[in-house]
Amino acid sequence: MDGHGTDARPLLACLRGAHKRHGAIHALQGLDLALRGGELLALLGPNGAGKTTAIGLLLGLARPDAGSAELFGRDPQDIAARRHVGVMLQEAALPPTLKVRELLRLTASYYPAPRSIADVVALAGIEDLLARPYGKLSGGQQRRVQFALAICGNPRLLFLDEPTVGLDIQARQALWAAIRALVADGCGVVLTTHYLEEAEALADRVCVLAHGRLLSEGSVQALRARVARKRVWCATTLPLAELAAWPEVAEAARDGERLCLSSDAPERLLRRLLAADPALSGLEVRAAGLAEAFTELTGAASAAQAAEAA
Ligand SMILES: Nc1ncnc2c1ncn2[C@@H]1O[C@H](COP(=O)(O)OP(=O)(O)OP(=O)(O)O)[C@@H](O)[C@H]1O
To answer: Which CDD domains does the entry link to (predicted)?
Structure first.
C-alpha cells in the first residue's frame, strides 16, 4: 500500500489496522490509511462507510479499539501534533455575534505560527465578509469562513469534511483553487465528499471505504480502470430499443442527437454497430467516470456483505 513504502514525501498521519466500534456497530474493521505532505487524498464511500470515524481517530477525537493511529509520528491526542492540523467539519458551532475579522484573529491567536490574516482572507476569498457578524451570513458564506478558520493556523495537514456543500458554482471553483494552492505548497489534505466530480478535480489519490474497510485505493485513473465498462456514443439510425436488446449493450439511452451505450465488451459492440449501420457517425468511446467506478465498487461490497451476513 502507498504510504508505507518508498514515497519520499513526509508521512503526516496514518491508521494501521484500526478497528472502532460504536456499540454494536463495527464502524472500522482494520483500516490502513496513510497521508503524505503535498497530496490530496479523497475519502469516498456511501453514508455510514466509516469516513467520519476514521477522521475522528486521526484527529484524536476518539481512540481505536485495536490497531493504531498516528499524527506527525505522535499520539493524535498530543497537543504538539494537533497544532499542525486544520479542520473543517460538517457542522461548526461558532459564536454568531462575533464579526468574521474577530473570529479570524481569535482563531489565529491559538496557534504558535499562524498564517497572516491577509493571506487567509485572500485564499478564502472573504474580503467582503470581514465586518459582518458570523451569525448573519448565508450558509455558503459561513462555509467559506469555516474554511478560512481551518487554514488560520498554517496547517501541514488539513481535514475537509464535505467542504463545498451549499456553495454556488463560483464559490466552489474558488475553494478548489485555494485547496490546490495549499497542496502545491506542501500541505496534505484529506477531503471527504459526496461530489465525485470534486474528487475527480482535486484528488491525487482516492480511497473508497465501505462497511469500515478499504475497498480500493489509487489514483482516479486507476480506480476508473478497475471498471471494465466503457461508454460508446454514436449517431445512428438503428432504433434504441433494438440496441438495448443486444447482449453487448448493458445500458442504452438517448443523449441529444446521439445514443449512449454502456458496454462490458466495447470492441465487440463497435464491430457489430459498424456492420449494422455503415453510415454510423459521431463515434466516441470513453472509460467510465469516477461515479460509475464508485457505484460499481460499493455495490459489489454491499452484495458481498449481504452474502457474508446470510
Ligand atoms: N457516536 C456514534 N454512536 C453510534 N454509532 C455511530 C456513532 N458514530 C458513527 N456511528 C455509526 O458508525 C458507522 C460509520 O459512521 P461514520 O459517521 O463514520 O460514516 P461516514 O462514512 O462518515 O458517513 P456519512 O457519509 O453519512 O457522513 C455508521 O453505521 C454510524 O451509524
So the answer is: ABC_DR_subfamily_A (cd03230)
Which long-range contacts does 97-100 make (Cβ < 8 Å, 24+ apart)? 97/133, 97/134, 97/135, 98/133, 98/134, 99/130, 99/131, 99/132, 99/133, 99/134, 100/126, 100/129, 100/130, 100/131, 100/132, 100/133, 100/134, 100/137, 100/145, 100/148
**Shared-domain flag, residues 138 and 243:** no
Q: How far is the CA of 102 from the centre of ligand 1 (A)?
A: 34
Pocket test for ligand 1, best of 15, 29, 52 (most atoms within 8 A of CB): 52
Flag whether pLDDT at 178 surpasses 90. yes
How remote is the CA of residue 135 from the centroid of ligand 1, in Å?
A: 28
Ligand 1 centroid–CA 29 distance in Å is 13
Instruction: Give the dihedral sign, CA 260/267/196/244.
Output: positive
Q: Would you state the pLDDT for residue 2? A: 44
Q: What is the CATH number of the domain that holds 265?
A: 3.30.70
Q: Which residue has the higher pLDDT, 290 or 203?
A: 203
Residues 116 and 213 in one domain: yes
Query: Which residues does a 6 A CB cutoff place in the pocket of ligand 1?
Result: 22-23, 25, 27, 45, 47-53
> Quick one: 122 and 266 in the same domain?
no
pLDDT in tens, 119-168: 999 999 999 999 999 999 999 999 999 999 999 999 999 999 999 988 89
Q: Which of 15, 19, 20, 25 to mutate to test the pocket of ligand 1 (most atoms within 8 A of CB)?
A: 25
206 in a domain, yes or no? yes
Q: What percent of the chain has pLDDT over 90?
A: 69
State ipTM. 0.96
Q: Which residues span the domain enclosing 253? A: 228-287
How much distance in Å is there from the Cα of 128 to the middle of ligand 1? 36
Which atom from ligand 1 is nearest to the alpha carbon of 212?
A: 14
